[in-house]
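Internal tracking record. Fields below are filled automatically when a chain is submitted to the structure queue. Please do not edit lines marked as system-generated. If the sequence contains nonstandard residues, flag them in the REMARKS field before resubmitting.
Queue: standard
Priority: normal
Entity type: single polypeptide chain
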Amino acid sequence: MTSKQIITLFITAASLASCTNYLDIKPYDKVIPETPEEFSAMLHTHLNNIDQGTENYLVPNFSHTSSFDASYADDFEVCLTEVGANLLSNYVGSFLQYNNYDNIYSNLYQYIRDCNIIFDNMDDKESPEAQAILATAYAMRGVSYYHLIKYFCQVPEPGNYDSQLGVPIVTQFDMEATPPRSSMAQSIAQAEKDLITSISYGLEDPIYRFTKDVAKGYLARLYFWSRRWSDCLPLVRELLAAHPLLPAEAFEAMMSEPYKLAGNQIIKAYRSISSSGSGSVSGIISSLQYRPVSIRYISNFYDDEKTTDIRYNMYVNTKRQAKKGIFCGMRSAEFKLMEAECLYHLGQNKEALAAINDLRRNRIANYSDIEMDAIPALNPRELMKVDVNGNTITPLLGLILRERRKELFLEGDRFFEMKRNGAPSFTTYFNGVKFTTLSYMYTFPIPIRDLDVSNNLIQNPGYTEFVNKY
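SYSTEM-GENERATED OUTPUT FOLLOWS
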């Protein structure tokens, strides 16, 4: 495959529908709720799906999360896949070719639709229950827009937000709406406004899952993804103060608990796992045993760390098989990694190194801090060569990114880290076939059905020609 590679996108006549279908409730014979209890039921349907592990997009489940790490990124060896890995694809092109991204797009807009119905139609805005519902709905809508930006937009460029494409913004229930793509600035502003509004309600009731701290965590993710380092930094420090890092033994106990919210985890899927969720997890775990963890991943552990770093034996066995416990959600180590990188990009290198030493101190036995003049050389196996600003990765940033890769293994992070830091093209082989992930493929296309119906949508670069479209 070459730089002129075109992904074959399939579409069936049955799926020809516009974005308005995500906003329209009439075809499903639904009646708009009237009481807070009825509006609450709309949200709890989605929250229950998260708890059962059948939700793919708000808090992605293990099937979705593991695909991005084991199939679309470089943490596993596709070329060494054995028979038995039937649930794993070979590269992100397979995901794109069969329009699987369409489900992400449509489901996220369905969540936005449900939230808009609440905002437009729930008369009670003052009772405690109504305010909890509003806080949850604003958080869910903000999270949905954050995910849409991450999946369907190029990485935000500070100073160029106004010229970059965002996503269609819908803030009211409107069956006839065919909104154009907003700018990146408008999309980020909408997600930010929703999350800040949710935080302002001070929701603490865990039954609604998207509590104040969860909304803060997603706001931090939005700022981090948008390269708003000075906005992200105080927020992650606030979250770390409330949910501090755990020492090695407590960390191991937390990560060994597959279903209970434990330790410094603040949101998590599978808290009341269903039989279908359990079956999906079992199938994915079984498939992973037939695709070895890559040497590129393992080489991020220095030789002495293979006996001292608790993550090494927790995550991978001697046969290079993944053994990490299931975690789909958000936890404090991610905030510490964000803190370190924010400090680095703000030019506070000494503080950035101190932050990453703090994380390593809680993972590595008998740890001695790395000094500024003794930062290890960059990993020569690393595919990412430039950072999010297009600059050559320095040893200090390389250390931060190395720790992020080690820590967040199989949590759906690696593919997006590669997108964020240069979107490197890379090639793998399977059964004599060459599979190449090109830079444009890290940003998914706007679904064809929406382009067919609306004349005011612009497709992402790389997807302007379609074949086998029927």
